[in-house]
Design goal:
The protein is an alpha+beta fold. The protein has a single domain (12-148), classed as NADH Oxidase (3-Layer(aba) Sandwich), CATH 3.40.109. The protein contains five helices and five strands; from the N terminus they run ααβαβαββαβ. The chain has helices spanning 2-6, 20-30, 50-56, 89-106, 120-130, and strands spanning 42-47, 71-78, 110-111, 114-115, 136-145. Strands 1, 2, 3, 4 and 5 form a five-stranded antiparallel sheet that branches. The longest helix has 18 residues, at 89-106. It is globular and about 50 Å long. The two termini are 27 Å apart. It comes from Candidatus Moduliflexus flocculans. This is Nitroreductase.
Amino acid sequence: MNAILKRRSIRKYTTEPITDEQITLLLEAAMSAPSARNQRPWEFVVITEPEKLQKAGDVSPYAQMTKTAPLAILVCGNLQREPQQDGFWVQDCAAATENLLLEAVELGLGGVWLGIYPVQPRSSYLQALFGLPEHIVPFALIPIGHPAETKNLASRYDAMRVHRNAW
């Protein structure tokens, strides 16, 4: 619960770099997510080049913090790894994204989940920027860095949204 409650959307970062070891741990956490039929349809683009981070930040007006982050990870779905084409890749990539964000907290890092899929202009922009093949669909862009802001723990439990055995 501690990591879950500490996970907040962090949009301001220091200039301290992220190590290769930290990147590997983030990706290991992401790839430890549950997956329908164990298809693991995820692919990840690790973005550290300042020029690419700048351009990735132009994907939407809500992505400006990407321009000052030392790292961003683009979580993508590989449609060829989902032979039944039933759309579970979206859930799998969401689980991977949340695992990545929780590991960031454990590492003393902060990040924010920027939604890309299903907004087609955003997907198309990032597909072109990173030269993704057609069967690779950008799902979420996650800027990550050492937090330059502090947010309080927040429990968002709401008993009014819990229904037992029926609505």
